[in-house]
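Support request from a user on the community tier.

User writes: "When I paste my structure tokens into the form, the page sometimes reloads and wipes my input. The last time it worked, I copied everything first. Here is what I submitted, just in case something in the input itself triggers the reload:"
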């Protein structure tokens, strides 16, 4: 599951699974940002279309010039 995208069903945020810390799954927003903890029972898989949109946002964010 690490590296895959998931949805935090508590608020609908999508994040990339970065790992686990204690009982929580750590998610990071597409394109980077601050990780947040989510109880595993509140994590659901993401549909392919949602993943593709998230990857495009990540790639676009990486290509921005300062």
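"...and here is what came back when it finally went through:"
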């Amino acid at each position: 599951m690490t590296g895959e995208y998931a949805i935090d069903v508590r608020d609908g945020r999508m994040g990339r699974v970065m790992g686990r810390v204690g009982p929580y799954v750590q998610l990071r927003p597409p394109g980077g940002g601050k990780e947040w903890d989510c109880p595993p029972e509140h994590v659901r898989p993401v549909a392919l279309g949602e993943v593709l949109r998230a990857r495009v946002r990540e790639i676009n964010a990486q290509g921005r010039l300062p």
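Agent notes: The reload is a front-end session timeout and is unrelated to the input. Residues 5-62 form one domain. The helical segments are 48-62. Escalated to web team.
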